[in-house]
Amino acid sequence: MTDIAARLLDGKALARSLQNEYKKRIATLEPKIGRPPGLAVLMVGENPASAVYVRNKERASSKVGIASFGQHFPVTVTQTELEVAIDLLNADDCVDGILLQLPLPSHLDATALLYRIRPEKDADGLHPVNLGRLVRSEPGLRSCTPAGVMRLLAEYDIDPAGKRALVVGRSILVGKPMALMLLEANASVAIAHSHTSASDLCDLARKADILVPAVGKAGLIGPELVKPGAVVVDVGIVRVTNPDGSHHLTGDVDFDGVSRVASAIAPVPGGVGPMTVALLLENTITSWVTSWERRRSEAHAAL
Ligand SMILES: Nc1nc(=O)c2c([nH]1)NC[C@@H]1CN(c3ccc(C(=O)N[C@@H](CCC(=O)O)C(=O)O)cc3)C=[N+]21
Ligand SMILES: [Mg+2]
User: Fold this and answer.
1) Do 168 and 70 share a structural domain?
2) 197, 199, 196, 194: which is closest to 217 by C-alpha?
3) Distance, CA 195 to ligand 2 centroid (Å)?
4) Does residue 56 line the site of ligand 1, with CB under 6 A?
5) 163 an active-site residue?
6) Any idea which positions bind NADP(+) (predicted)?
7) How many domains does the chain have?
């Protein structure tokens, strides 16, 4: 067998160049709007993986000129306290994006909190209004990870139209919106999930031209599950503890094995993760511009 190295879908590099564009855009518009865009990331408890993502988001925000209104709550925080925090951010004219880091401890009702975020500030695209817009193929704020995957495919001129796509996983954060976005891009989409049998997963995966695992199970996708020439976008995130107690990040895909079979592959780390952060910034900037335009046209109407 000849080893054909797959093209690397370099999310890290693309995210870096997107961030440079965001930075310029903000620098141009800030004098007109009179304030920077604002993003509030709400985190509950001490999940170390979550802490890494929150830090990445805040670092990226400050790099492009987005003001952070992050709040970190103890694991004992009550539903009411979070509702109050969300209400204040909803009403704060300096805050354009609100992200509630998931998962939450089980004593909290995450759905009720997500529904409480004003759809105009829903930087994560998880409010039912924004999910409904996605189902209808209307513009709106969209879930950052799947939107980042679509942007990454576009950057490498990979057009899903007419291709068979398989999404593995059906979470509201990734799997479902991912399937809808691939459908919108005219792929023939299948979804495998925890009730899909191993043999069905194998059949579906081996037929897929575009394979998007989003499960969080290291080694789930080996080369035997990949159609030669397929595009593989790894959305799984697994935090592995090394023998010395340190940690490293890996995805659902056996990268070395699969990169000999696939035509293109997005790695973990360095693929979808940085794109998720980039699209979060982009959603925040979109909300910032939209709310400014709305206020301007209201002011005009009042004259
Ligand atoms: N409401 C909500 N929205 C989310 O978007 C959300 C969430 N909750 N909960 C947790 C997951 C996870 N997530 C990541 C974001 C960035 C990286 C990321 O930047 N990864 C880098 C490097 C990570 C590192 O520094 O090691 C990479 O893959 O190269 C990873 C994971 C967003 N999530
Ligand atoms: Mg599932």
Assistant:
1) no
2) 194
3) 8
4) yes
5) no
6) 169-171, 237
7) 2
Residue type at position 104: L
Residue 293 CB coordination number (10 Å): 11
Q: Is 170 annotated as a binding residue?
A: yes
Confidence of residue 5 (pLDDT cuts 50, 70, 90): confident
Q: Give which of 167, 144, 183 is closest to 275, Cα–Cα.
A: 144
213 touches ligand 1 (CB under 6 Å): no
Kindly report, residue by residue over 32-83, the tens digit of the pLDDT.
999 999 999 999 999 887 888 899 999 999 999 999 999 999 999 999 999 9
Q: Give the active site residue among 19, 96, 122, 124.
A: 124
Instruction: Give the separation between CA 192 and CA 229, rounded to whole angstroms.
Output: 20
Which is catalytic among the residues 19, 96, 101, 209?
101
4 band by pLDDT with thresholds 50, 70 and 90: low
Q: Residue 221 has which token pair?
A: 């996708």
* Rounded Cα gap, residues 95 and 125, in angstroms: 16
Domain assignment of residue 215, given as a range? 143-273
110 and 42, same structural domain?
yes
pTM, rounded to two decimals:
0.97
Count other C-beta atoms under 10 Å from residue 65's C-beta: 17
Please give the ipTM for the structure prediction: 0.96
